[in-house]
Design a protein that fits this description.
- It contains 26 helices and twelve strands.
- The protein is of the alpha/beta class.
- The longest helix has 20 residues.
- The chain starts with a strand and ends with a helix.
Length: 570
């Protein structure tokens, strides 16, 4: 790696092809970015001071002796800025009758343009760079290249811009990688600084080159991009995965890889499995797997396509916004994955969805999986081994029936993945402290099973539509009376954080009502509603609002009620 300060002349040196990966996403800048760039270039022309325009990452590509240009580099980062600068300088030079200066900088010695564009933008980009005079151009709404040209053509004032000053004062942090270096590490570093880049972009350009358009359309575009915004929105949606934010498409590629490496016919070495399970090196893992285990690229693409169709049909991150079914199945598992931040389940669930044909058999397994996960949540069992369990063990042992699932958990030598029994579950409802999201999730899942939907006039809302409320407030000392001993106070301070004292309601209470006495908290005051207003139809709460008093004894009774329902459900 070679990193340092770069000028435009350093990047466009007349004997270097800069190749934007052919299947990279289209150019996306719009009015806001163009306006800022134009204002900044006017300021640079006046101040004659250096102007930093971010990083440009280029990766060396192998060339052969027949290539007329000896230096070919892939643009890893900088597509938007380099594209915009080409269009900006082209319009400026045409406006000032100085097209020769543009071609001196942005053309190669063989008279081709130095920046090779992707398949989405190549026609419009070449059309603009080939102009010899400013003309009116029109294009579809999605053609941002044409829009950029028209923006600068309309708004650029040559009297406020100095070509030579801008050319010499624009600076980049240039990072040049050799052909063996790992660009994903660089991408993830940029991600940590807030630039949105995905492993999927790297994989797309690894699988396909400029001669693979038909292959690309069949195995990538039709699956991950399509012609509709809904497809792109689904795969680009970001989710919390551990400590990181990952797109659906990256989660898919990670999940598929974890399933693939458990294929016994491949005989993937244990040390490779460990490396391949690391999210931060996902792109390198694909390259290594395909190269070292001699996998056929087309066969892998065909399998990826099949799994991707199953993935999209199965995983619905919007489930948390809608009423949850009372029936055991993929919807309830989705709610655990996306409502309770348990994306580690995805590889195993994808494996089930792909290989268990009968929905009834899948649902039996999902009932067991829900019971296992929710019981462990109630008792606050560790999740540190979930990644190994759901990305390795259950897949490698081909656990695809409810009997096999219970058998594997029961016989597992590792106690950390145990299935909590009823006595542990009872203790959990009485004593465990959980984070708010888990507490709300447990109560919501119980509510979704016990609610009589035919009798209730109000519909169960999506999981994210509810707030968690402490029935006895944390600030109880103001309105809930004095307690005589330290033991009594300590007991109250502990029990008010347990599930028996926690409820879901449709909207958070006003702070003045939240900390009020029990009667006021139930009915509200003036124009500030209380619990009854926000608990219509909530069967885990509404009956308790008929009580005249709420105290430690009632909290324990409600904990017992929740436990009794839980052992019926889980």
């Amino acid at each position: 790696m070679d990193a340092g300060k770069r000028t435009i002349n350093d990047i466009f040196n007349g004997n270097r092809i800069l190749e934007i990966p052919f299947f990279q996403r289209a150019y996306v800048w719009g009015d806001e970015q163009w306006e800022r760039l134009l204002e900044d270039m006017e300021a640079v022309s006046i101040s004659n001071r250096p102007y930093f325009l971010g990083s440009v990452i280029l990766k060396q590509q192998p060339t052969n002796t027949s290539n007329p240009v000896g230096d070919v580099r892939t643009v890893i980062d900088g597509q938007q800025r380099l594209t915009t600068l080409n269009i900006f300088f082209k319009v400026l030079c045409l406006r000032t009758d100085n097209n020769a200066s543009f071609e001196r900088i942005f053309k190669l010695l063989n008279n081709e343009f130095a920046l090779y564009h992707n398949h989405n933008d190549i026609a419009s980009f070449k059309q603009i760079l080939s102009l010899t005079e400013l003309v009116d151009l029109t294009g579809p709404d999605h053609d941002k290249i044409i829009h950029a040209y028209n923006y600068f053509k309309k708004n650029l004032d040559p009297n406020k811009l100095n070509f030579n000053i801008i050319l010499s004062r624009i600076l980049f942090v240039g990072i040049d990688l050799d052909e063996n270096e790992d660009e994903q590490q660089i991408f993830d570093t940029i991600n940590s600084l807030g630039v949105r880049l995905t492993t999927a972009e790297l994989l797309k350009n690894y699988f396909f080159n400029r001669d693979d358009l038909n292959l690309y359309n069949e195995y990538w575009r039709n699956i991950f991009e399509g012609d509709d915004e809904e497809t792109k929105r689904y795969w680009d949606h970001e989710l919390t995965a551990g400590r990181l934010r990952r797109t659906c498409i990256d989660l898919f590629f990670y999940s598929y890889l974890q399933i693939k490496i458990q294929d016994s016919s491949l005989k993937v070495k244990t040390e490779d499995k460990i490396e391949f399970s690391k999210v931060e090196s996902l792109f390198e893992s694909y390259k290594t797997l395909i190269k070292e285990y001699k996998l056929d690229r087309t066969e892998i693409l065909r399998e990826i396509k099949d799994y991707a169709v199953v993935f999209r049909d199965s995983f619905d991150y919007e489930i948390v916004e809608h009423e949850l079914s009372a029936d055991y199945g993929i919807d309830r598992i989705n709610a655990i994955i996306f409502g309770l931040d348990t994306t580690t389940l995805i590889p195993y669930v994808l494996y089930i969805q792909k290989h268990v044909r009968e929905e009834s058999e899948r649902n039996k397994l999902y009932k067991a999986l829900e019971s296992y996960l929710m019981r462990r949540m109630v008792v606050h069992a560790t999740t540190k081994n979930y990644n190994q369990l759901f990305t390795d063990r259950l897949i490698s042992h081909e656990v695809l029936t409810v009997e096999a699932f219970y058998d594997y958990i029961e016989k597992s030598a590792d106690r950390v993945n145990y299935f909590p029994d009823d006595s542990e579950l009872e203790h959990g409802f009485k004593s465990t402290y959980l984070i708010n999201k888990q507490s709300a999730g447990i109560i919501y899942f119980l509510e979704s099973k016990i609610r009589n939907r035919n009798r209730q006039s109000t519909q169960l809302l999506g999981m994210r539509k509810y707030s968690l409320e402490h029935l006895m407030p944390k600030k109880w000392k103001n309105h809930w009376g004095e307690l005589g001993t330290k033991e009594e106070r300590d007991f109250r301070n502990r029990i008010l954080y347990t599930l028996g004292n926690l409820a879901i309601i449709t909207q958070s209470l006003n702070a003045s009502i939240r900390d009020s006495d029990w009667t006021t908290k139930k009915v509200g005051r003036a124009n500030k509603p209380g619990l009854r207003h926000y608990s219509a139809g909530i069967e885990t709460l509404a009956p308790y609002l008929e009580l005249e008093d709420w105290n430690e004894n009632e909290i324990q009774k409600r904990a017992r009620f929740l436990y009794d329902k839980a052992i019926e459900i889980w």
